[in-house]
Amino acid sequence: MNTNNNKTILTIYLDGSTITSIPSFYKQINEQLMQEEDWQLGESLDALDDVLYGGYGKWKDYDLLEIVWKYIAVSERALGIEATKAYYEAKLGAGSPYNQDFVKEKLKHLEEGTGQTYFEMVMEIIESHRDRVRLTKKS
């Protein structure tokens, strides 16, 4: 625990050299934040967003969360276009509960080079919590 202007800070470390897929990203998030809970964070951007609000897991008793992401460039490549394409394609198909037109549109933008990668979506979520979450990128 660190303190900064009377606020308690929890620092966690993500090892980007082992974040080589979407499941491995959530595995590290769960290992770093959710070990005190009897449930784990699912592979969901909405779940990541929810947990970053605080009140869950290891950082529920802290004011600020600092994420030190080592070897982030490895993760950026691993969570890039191919992983994102697979993520969207897994949501398509008969019986899928996902909005097929929405998913197809996201996939189209990705293939045209105008859509966000999974890594970029994670970065956007972390940035949206900048009042309580800090990201330190390490190469």
From TrEMBL:
SUPFAM superfamilies: Barstar-related
Pfam families: Barstar
Domain of life: Bacteria
InterPro entries: Barstar, Barstar-like_sf
UniProt domain Barstar (barnase inhibitor): residue ranges: 11-80
Family of this protein: Belongs to the barstar family.
Name listed for the protein in its UniProt record: Barstar family protein
